[in-house]
Amino acid sequence: MGMLILGLVIFLGVHSTRIVAEGWRTAMIARLGAGAWKGLYALVSLVGLGLVVWGFGLARQQPVQWWAPPFAMRHVAWLLTAIAFILLAAAYVPRNAIKARLHHPMVLGVMFWAVAHLLANGNRAHVLLFGSFLVWAALSFRAARLRDRAAGTVYPAGTALGTALTVLVGMVAWGGVAFWAHGLLIGIRPV
Coil, helix or strand for 104? Predict the structure, then answer.
């Protein structure tokens, strides 16, 4: 469990600089340069992610069950993860109404993903992993909205084509993960 916690601290810590240390982040980018900052950020993120994956794998070998979720929560999780993938796609597909309305769909996607997994899993490692991501995503979304408000950020309006493409890309990605990649990478087939 210690590796999982260390990985979460590193991974979510580096991803929290805009939440807790925006001024320090700006100063570091000015001092190091944008490229060096991105490289350092990516390196630390990869180390943290590696520790999360390793630590979660270790924790799954000795599960501590806190509760047994009802079987129906699996169906709720499928729906919530489908929404999460659509929100993730909305962060990248240009000119979609989802991003125009929500402004930070990727972070909201992380929230849906985390809630889905918390509803469908009741062991300690899952609660720690997905609960940590849920708290981080909520704080990150709040900080991003406050930054937008302070900067007067205006997001371009979405189009019907951009929105339809977003939903299509999100659902295809969800299907690929739910029916194939999750089982291959995680060892659990959710569908």
Answer: coil
Long-range contacts of the stretch 19-27 (C-beta < 8 A, 24+) = 19/139, 19/140, 19/143, 22/143, 22/147
User: Which residue bears the tokens 């339809």?
Assistant: 164
Triad 24, 26, 30: Cα angle to 5°: 115
- Residues whose CB falls within 8 Å of the CB of residue 102, separated by 6 or more in sequence, listed in order: 87, 90, 108
Is 187's pLDDT higher than 80? no
Report the predicted TM-score, pTM, of the whole model to 2 decimal places.
0.89
Name the residue type at position 96.
N
State mean pLDDT over 17-25: 92
Nearest-angstrom CA–CA distance, 96 and 162: 4
Q: Provide mean pLDDT across the span 9-32.
A: 94
